[in-house]
Amino acid sequence: MKPRSVRNLSRISKVVNILIQNGFEGFVSSTGLRSFLSNDRKAPFGEKKDVLLNRWQRIRMVIEELGPTMIKFANYLACRPDILPEPLISEFSHINHVDEPFSKVQAVDFFEKATNIKVDNAFSYFDSTCCFSEGFGRTFRAKLISGEDVAVKVLMPNAETTVQTDITLIRDVVSLIENYLVKHGIVNPLELVNMFEEQIIPELDLRNEANMIGRFKKAYSKADSLIVPKVYTEFSTKETLVTDYYNSLSIKSGVDFSTWGVSRKDTADKFLQTYISGLLQTGVFHSSPRRSVVAVLPNGKISFSDYASTGMLTSDQRILVNDATASLIARNSRVLSESLRKLSVGGEIDDYQTFRTEIQYLADNLFYMEDSSSYMNEFSLGMMRIAYRHKLLLPREVVCAFTSLAAAENVAVSINPDISIAKYFKPYSTKLFMERFSPDRLKSKLNQNISQASDLLENSPLDLSLILKKLRKGEFTANHKIVGMGFFVKKVDTAANKLVYAIMIAALIIGASIITVLGENMYTILGFPVPALIGFALALILSLSLLFYTIRNRFGSRGNDPDGE
């Protein structure tokens, strides 16, 4: 791709500038991005920063400087251990959003334009500073005229345009370095960009987040340790979202909760118990539970500051994820491998024994690291590595479920470094295995099998009737493929050559014999007419050639003949 065909020249120039400032001039020079270097190739866009940090840390710094779209793209790629190395995935877990200035005046103006409601007619108080900012949203504390404390979230101005521009930029950059990516094993990189676009666009509509909050509220109605806010729909639009506000502290703040009489150990316990039980029992989960998003209330309860990244498993997927986690604790590779296979979309496992062995190795390895602070991280990455190695495509919701458990583990460890996530799965292990044989589960499985058998019996006569109709009309066609056709043609060609040689030899001998008997007044040598002698000589030469060819083909090429012929 030539530079003039790129639609975001200034943005790509900024990317190149940031890459070089962080010590990636060699990468720029070896890819299509070199077109944006100056002629002298010396510090083309500015001074280099201190590059004493390792490569993975510098990549994280590049992503942070490029803004929220690139940060979300990095988080998306962090779910693909077949693409990114583990040190980079680990580094992306520490990624920080760089806040852009956003004032109360801007927020008020944006709110009034989006809702057609004057702020003074809706709120008795509107805070002057932003209390939470991440991604494309900015949240301000306010108080409704009716007295409720609320959080007012507004999208950044031109957020949709910015995202579309950045996605186009990602496509352009990927096109520029596509050969580099394919060379390093990343097949069809543009498809990754398309999938990321499908994931991020819904986050630009806050009505989707409002719907997710409603699902959370219903799914976690019995969870005493989690607070889910109420949505005030009369003030919520595509660009604005008004919910209950809770006085809380973000996990990342590092404040000692003991000032509230809340212990860090109890907080970590509540968070993990609520998160794991919610995911396994309801299938609704926060797909990106980062430390900046998880907050603690003075009463020790947990809340989320943002619901834009929310996942939901289907009932079948939830059951299979339950089976996978339960079989992990029990080190049952058969159930674990079957769960992973059934969770995948399409694809057949060519070497099931190797697949099963890798699953068993993962389960055994995790058994000996139950007290590790990276237990779920190793589990999620291990499962995805095995899936991608055997070309199994996992649905995005399932990948999010596995990675969110790893992210929840990181949050819990940041609260209480001595916590072990494995012990929170053990109470569910026996329960989940019992559920596999519960009457409701068996009834559901029986109904599913009966339904499939009924569909087969119902559709088979129709399919057979269609085949018979095509046969009667002469429209029935069949495709076939002969395996080993090249070897078969070679054998036929060899036999034909031998036959031609034999016919020629026989013809020469018969002709020479006739000349010898009937030939008169011909010049003779050793009593044979010269033409007959020439015929016998040619027949002898051809016979020796045929004999030599046959012997060489029989013994010299036996290794290439699968039938030993």
Would you kindly provide a brief summary of this structure?
By secondary structure, the protein is an alpha+beta fold. The protein has 21 helices and 12 strands.
Write a structural description.
- The protein contains 21 helices and 12 strands.
- The protein has helices spanning 9-21, 25-29, 55-66, 68-77, 86-92, 104-115, 119-122, 159-176, 178-183, 189-200, 206-219, 264-282, 315-330, 333-343, 352-367, 375-389, 396-415, 422-436, 439-473, 485-518, 530-556, and strands at 123-134, 137-144, 149-155, 226-227, 240-244, 249-250, 284-286, 294-296, 302-304, 310-312, 524-525, 528-529.
- It is α+β, with helices and mostly antiparallel strands and 565 residues long.
- The radius of gyration is 36 Å and the shape is elongated.
- The chain has a 4-stranded antiparallel β-sheet. Strands 4-9-8-6 form a 4-stranded mixed β-sheet, with helices on one face.
- Helix 8 (159-176) packs antiparallel against helix 10 (189-200) and helix 13 packs antiparallel against helix 14 (333-343).
Rg calculated over all Cα atoms: 36 Å
Mean pLDDT: 79
What general outline do the C-alpha atoms trace?
Answer: elongated
Strand content range = 5-15%
Structural category is: alpha+beta
- The end-to-end distance, rounded to whole angstroms, is 55 Å
**What is the share of helical residues?**
55-70%
Q: Report the total helices.
A: 21
Query: Main sheet?
Result: 4 strands, antiparallel
Give the total of beta strands: 12
Low-confidence stretches: 1-6, 40-47, 558-565
Strand order of the largest sheet: 1-2-3-5
